[in-house]
Model the fold of this input.
Amino acid sequence: CFDLPNSQLNPVDCAITWTPVLRSQDIANGLSESTYVVAITAEDFVNASSTIPLSSVPHQILVHVSYRPASACSTRPSITGLRRRNLACYALSVGYTIDFIILSTVTCTSDSIVEFISTSPFDIFKTDLYQESNYTWGVNITWTPLSDQIGLQPFCIAAI
Done:
């Protein structure tokens, strides 16, 4: 975690704790945002004294930081419209289609949603962003799992 300033890696659970900051060169150039490229490899071992990993999985992450003025809304948009609460699991069968309506509401009247970003299984369909009401925006999600997608398929979505 040395290339990501103000970060710490917990060696027990592999959690990265980080306080976002703008790069000094971006500040010097008058920019209000910075992007960091992070590469980390997760390895598992037979026991704590072993030095040869059983497996090694590389991860690459882009972290985008932007400055929020003091006048900006302090409340993040909320995700609504899900049939279950966050961290829910759905049991689906291959070939069975599931549809979600993902809605997000802002609490500050000067804010709006400009995009829903997501990590999702392959072949998931997400509609364009639409405005549901004055302070609520949405996207529709459709997914039909394929036979090569048996097992857990994480899906995360955020409104920005």
